[in-house]
From TrEMBL:
Organism: Spirosoma flavum
Domain of life of the organism encoding this protein: Bacteria
Protein name: NAD-dependent epimerase/dehydratase family protein
InterPro entries (UniProt xref): Epimerase_deHydtase, NAD(P)-bd_dom_sf
Stretches assigned to the NAD-dependent epimerase/dehydratase domain: 4-242
Keyword Isomerase included in the entry's annotation: no
């Protein structure tokens, strides 16, 4: 039986990945600084631990592991990563997790490791035109990410590749493009646009206006978590290291995305554009390389994924109303 460690198993993508590995027959150890609030820890072993501490990394990385998935990071949407107020923590915390897990993997002789990078590492100068952003893998340099979160991801990609070059660890690196879906963060300040817009629409009543940050003409593509997990597994079982984009090519403006969610809700709502943290003007995944190397690319239509997510967020709001958290 293959054994895997999922770092960040208490989080959104890590929780889905644990379930996928279990369904494939893996023995899975999860580690996170917190419990997974939705997935009830389907890992065979779940360790609460802080990967900024090298002793914790040494405890959870054992020599019997076949694979490590390193997803633990200080992470959030525009309201968390583009305000500037969390930059030191994001860089300090995430880089320590990466350094400690890699060093432990080297010392314990674990041969294969996945790293979750981000489209935020792409240069801002190629993402100024909302209708024609460039995010092909080779366009990463000259580097000029628009956030410290993006710089940390770019540095850590290089860190994983350096361990591959010098220590024989096989690295697999994907650049995620805005992943969303059931069990993703939907409130509290770290939520990304898909969940935030679903929450705002679900909580609105006929005649209300939904607040969208910026002029709403900025573009993104959003990928459902199921296809993210499928891509991670396909990359991990391939002989291609990456870095490679893992995202959807179905680009949409934020106002059109809000209109889609409003249409799904069946409510009579309008959009109000307000100031807010924005990030790049336009972003879309470029899937040429993943198609070429893996013979596969995400294909689920955005609307289908949003319908599923809107339904789940509506249920969470109803649960919160029925079971309010005690003050
Ligand atoms: P998430 O916040 O739900 O999961 C990250 C998990 O890491 C959290 O559960 C958190 O508690 C854990 N963690 C943070 N610091 C830790 C520490 N010191 N020790 C142990 N655990 C720690 O986020 P996610 O959306 O599941 O993202 C997973 C990975 O994918 C992250 O590396 C993120 O940067 C990357 N990524 C995500 C997206 C996206 O759209 N969701 C896009 C690009 C990249
Ligand atoms: N979060 C959020 N909430 N964003 C909103 C909202 C809202 O209510 N209204 C409009 N937006 C706009 C933001 O201003 C931004 O221009 C766009 O929607 C997308 O915001 P996010 O989904 O929060 O983040 P992002 O796409 O800019 O970056 C995310 O994806 C990266 C990978 O593609 C972040 O989660 C990064 O951390 C991640 O690496």
């Amino acid at each position: 039986m293959k054994k895997a460690l999922v770092c960040g198993a208490g989080g959104f993508i890590g929780g889905h990945l644990v379930n996928q590995l279990k369904s494939e027959g893996y023995w899975v150890r999860g580690v996170d600084i917190k419990e997974n609030e939705y997935d009830n820890n389907n890992a065979d072993e779940f360790i609460i631990g802080d990967l900024r501490d090298p002793d914790v990394a040494n405890e959870v990385v054992t020599s019997d592991l076949n694979e490590i998935y390193q997803l633990a990071a200080d992470m959030g949407g525009a309201g968390f990563v583009f305000t500037g107020t969390n930059d030191a923590g994001i860089m300090h915390n995430s880089v320590l997790c990466n350094l400690n897990v890699l060093e432990a993997a080297k010392n314990k002789g674990v041969r294969r490791i996945f790293y979750s990078s981000s489209a935020c590492m792409y240069p801002e100068y190629n993402q100024m035109d909302p209708n024609n952003p460039k995010c092909s893998e080779e366009s990463a340099y000259p580097a000029a990410p628009d956030s410290e979160y993006g710089w940390e991801k770019l540095f850590s990609e290089r860190l994983f590749l350096a361990y591959q070059k010098n220590h024989g660890i096989e690295a697999r690196i994907a650049r995620f493009h805005n992943i969303f879906g059931p069990q993703g963060t939907w409130d509290g300040g770290r939520e990304k646009a898909p969940a935030a817009v679903c929450r705002k629409v679900a909580m609105a009543k006929d005649g209300d206006a939904i607040e969208i940050w910026g002029d709403g003409l900025q573009t993104r593509s959003f990928l459902i978590v199921d296809e993210c997990v499928e891509g991670i597994r396909r990359l991990m079982t391939s002989d291609f290291s990456g870095p490679v984009n893992l995202g959807s090519e179905e680009m949409i403006s934020l106002n059109d995305f809000a209109k889609m969610v409003i249409d799904i809700s069946g409510k009579n709502l309008t959009i109000k554009n307000i100031p807010g943290p924005l990030g790049v003007r336009g972003r879309n995944s470029d899937n040429h390389l993943i198609q070429q190397k893996l013979g596969w690319a995400p294909s689920t239509p955005l609307r289908k994924s949003v319908e599923k997510t809107y339904e789940w967020i509506t249920e969470q709001i109803q649960k919160t109303v029925l079971e309010p958290v005690e003050a």
